[in-house]
Backbone:
């Protein structure tokens, strides 16, 4: 075998093996439980159902738009977000790379430079979108929380807003056009700390079991079906 041919095989095999190793590690990470904080039970309080929803690459957390939740996120009323719309049932929160998230509404919008920036490290943003009924959707995963767990989940989400004088920093002009909004977030996005890891961290903060490392939607869903 010529030296050129060997180099060519290495060149092709290296990225394939790297991706395979990443996906295998993600699967194992979803199967190994992480330690979670204990959340004291709240006797008599109504349970709350949230949903995990998303795509092959990305997962969001859908939170019921109760009166208390609308009041908590009343700052959305100063944007194009339809906070007072009668058909608003859920606020859908996602976390991700600023470059990739704000420019990629669909898979057809993916560009190499934005994907590369996300993989190697980018500042993070929070995305909030409106949603109607999700109960009958086939592409969601329901999780029931106690009232105390739900409060812990909201506290976790709130802690990621980058704020100025107490107010979240809105990314003006960034939207996919359906009333959704973007805000600057704490933390940094990269291949080892993507959106699905953020979702797992949110669930663990609420006291739910989750895999120790769930960088893919599949590993996150596997861990939730296994432990919750």
Residues:
């Amino acid at each position: 075998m010529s030296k050129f041919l060997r180099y060519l095989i290495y060149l092709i095999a290296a990225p394939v093996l790297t991706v395979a190793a990443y996906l295998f590690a993600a699967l194992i990470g979803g199967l190994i439980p992480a330690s979670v904080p204990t959340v004291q039970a709240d006797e008599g309080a109504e349970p709350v159902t949230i949903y995990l929803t998303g795509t092959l690459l990305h997962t969001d957390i859908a939170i019921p738009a109760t009166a208390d939740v609308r009041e908590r996120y009343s700052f959305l009323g100063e944007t194009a977000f339809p906070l007072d719309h009668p058909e608003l049932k859920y606020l859908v929160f996602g976390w991700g790379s600023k470059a990739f998230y704000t420019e990629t509404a669909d898979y057809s919008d993916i560009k190499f430079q934005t994907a590369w920036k996300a993989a190697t490290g980018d500042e993070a943003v929070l995305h909030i979108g409106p949603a109607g009924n999700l109960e009958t959707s086939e592409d969601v995963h329901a999780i029931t929380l106690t009232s105390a767990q739900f409060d812990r989940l909201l506290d976790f989400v709130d802690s990621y807003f980058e704020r100025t004088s107490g107010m979240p920093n809105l990314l003006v002009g960034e939207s996919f056009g359906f009333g959704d909004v973007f805000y600057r977030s704490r933390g940094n996005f990269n291949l080892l700390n993507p959106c699905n890891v953020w979702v797992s961290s949110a669930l663990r903060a609420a006291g739910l079991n989750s895999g120790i490392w769930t960088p893919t939607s599949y590993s996150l869903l596997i861990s939730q079906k296994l432990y919750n």
Remarks:
- The beta strands are 48-54, 59-64, 90-97, 122-131, 140-145, 163-164, 167-168, 181-189.
- The chain has seven helices and eight strands.
- Helices lie at 3-31, 67-72, 98-103, 112-120, 147-159, 195-205, 217-227.
